């Protein structure tokens, strides 16, 4: 099991601890609909990673094997690249390995800085990264709100490390530790760390700035682990006023699939409307806020404060909120099973499982938005699941209690949906913030 997958139980334990902290302190760091959306997007990212990580690691390994210029300094061939050695004199530190692994970790973090920076400065890369910023909250659940497709082009920034002789195994370890480190800094529960840590490391305070949509905070603090990169390259700013979280053009959706794809759709629409090839190029490779003069010019962020922003929300019957929570929870075990069994499953079964998890989580987002399509899509999913459950029972492919529980769950779920069918009132092209509509009607 990989380092990131092995860390998942720790992630959820820390989320539970932060949630308890916020409840005891009466702080509104979490909202159910937002957190479900965060974790759903993260789940889709991990499922997609089963397929996309093969590209990243595959390209890296090929360059290392066929085009590397040297071997990474001080690091023996994997798996001998450990930092402790046992010999006749006892256990000693392999200082060459210490230097090699330390330099590798720093190099991976530097490559991450530039990948992250370009992901904010170039629209095509931003389309893969924007999902991580589209939540209007800031908590540990947001840390798991990751891109499902951004990794398809991220290998470009790590390929030079393979060229310099870093093995793919060493890269994979350093890369995973880098991402795991970044989890804990997505919190408002920690104000400041000691001065030395704030000077060297990426901290919750620095990263809150990075997620701020305030004009003065945008495109700042790109660091993964070491904030020194931002200080050296002129992108650092300290946290002063409380940030407003989100993106300049709010997503206004709980749909994790739309969160992953909406910026690609926006790029395609802008390219189609563009009047020249230059404009088309800039729609894709220009800054995320670039617009032609005929479209009104660049999008400029307006000054905001936590008191002037109304967060996206939807008024959903409590029964549907509970329904969404239950079916989100029921989608997680098959997702975890896919992650742990991916290397043993046939491609068709793996694809079918990934499709089912994506459909379940997308439908949950649609339920939380009261979309008409979600009412129909959920009935179709539940019907297919009920039919599969009957098939398991008839062919004795699953224990009786599993098939029976699945059938009962489908029946109860259909009943809840039909009992609340009048709540599904919004069509697929209505993306107006419901909270704003209701306020406007007062």
Description of the structure:
There is one protein chain. With 442 residues, the protein is mostly helical. It has 17 helices and two strands. The protein has a two-stranded antiparallel ribbon with strand order 1-2. A hairpin with a 2-residue loop joins strand 1 (84-87) and strand 2 (90-93). The relative contact order is 0.11. Mean pLDDT is 89; it is low at 77-81 and 432-442.
Oligomeric status of the shown chains? single chain
Tell how many strands the DSSP assignment holds. Answer: 2
Fraction in helix: 55-70%
* Separation of the first and last Cα atoms: 54 Å
Low-confidence stretches: 77-81, 432-442
Report the principal-axis shape.
globular
Helix-and-strand structural type: mainly alpha
Strand content: under 5%
Widest sheet: strand ordering: 1-2
Write down the Rg.
24 Å
- Overall pLDDT level: 89
Order of helices and strands: HHEEHHHHHHHHHHHHHHH
Largest sheet entry: 2 strands, antiparallel
State the gist of this model.
The chain is an all-alpha fold and 442 residues long. Helices cover 60% and strands 2% of the residues. Helix 2 (32-66) packs across helix 11 (256-273) and helix 13 (318-341) packs antiparallel against helix 14.
